[in-house]
Amino acid sequence: MQNTNKKPTVCSFFSGGGLLDLGFKDDFNIIWANEFNTEAAKSYQSNIGDHIVVGNINEIAKDMSKIPNADIYIGGPPCIDFSSNGANRGEKGVNGQLTWTYFNIIKAKKPKAFVMENVAGLAQKHKGTLEKLKQSFNEVGYDVQVETLNSAEFGTPQQRKRVFIIGFRNDLGTSFEFPNGNTHFVTVKDAFKGLSSPQTIKARDKVLGDIPNHTATWTNPSPERIKDLYINPRPNQRVGLKRLDWDKPSYTLTAHIAKDGREFLHPDEDRRISVREALRLMGVPDSYIIPRGVPLNQQYTLVGNGVAYQVAKALAIAIRVQLTNVDKQIKQVSSLNGYKAKKEKAEQLSFDDLLLA
Hints:
- Its EC number is 2.1.1.37.
- By secondary structure, the chain is of the alpha/beta class.
- It has a domain at about 10-180 and about 310-355: Rossmann fold.
- It has 13 helices and nine strands.
């Protein structure tokens, strides 16, 4: 008898530190992942698994046999070329072109389903690219659904809008339905509960901290610089100086926090928020710990580039539930294989049977 509890498999692309994968790992078996950034990959390996391959996906994709087959492919191609705060070069940019690399991999490997994540700008200024992607996925056999989700509506203490493109292969006979959020927002105060002031370190110290990843350099900017800009504002020098509000969700965290923390100041203390505080604003459990060997700027970058944990988890559960809904797929399984099952026999089909169909 087959094990009906066997988890469907996942391959992960543009994996970063694994924040998207963290939401999927309980419901899926992640068998392979790829990331270009070696520092982010160290955190992935420490928190998600040893299956990550470090390398250029364009080079890897030249030989598709190097990429395992899996039930689901998940990934968020680098977003800077679609971001209103980034390069904004669209699909013609070096990073923007990776969106089509991901498409070509899915086209060649034909997973049962896929997830593609990107910034809200893909559905706004670069809507033409989004429509082209949808049409292209339709042409290679996928039913595609697109939604912009705000992480704050899923219990993350951050207003973070991201576009999700989710496709189910046409022969599954079903369309993906996005999970619904709610209007009960979690605040910065909720997120930082139980955290004392961070341990002070030097910028290049590789220290985990008494509370893992909860350290502060008190630079970029310094407390003196912050006070000076508030007391003596000068033209163009207060641009980007923003302080979190205890009683609201955070505004969107970006990877820019790695370079200059002026936009992400603690609600009370004159400092950039710590990496642990940033992780909490992404909804990430404290069990996720970035290794001490990862440089501080790279720690901030992998958080700013990540997917909010509660959104990733909600999507993972929705995909698993919808793909395991036997009743919706029995007719499709029968027509694909000429399988002449009676109703009582069909009701015994497991998710594994469907995936093997």
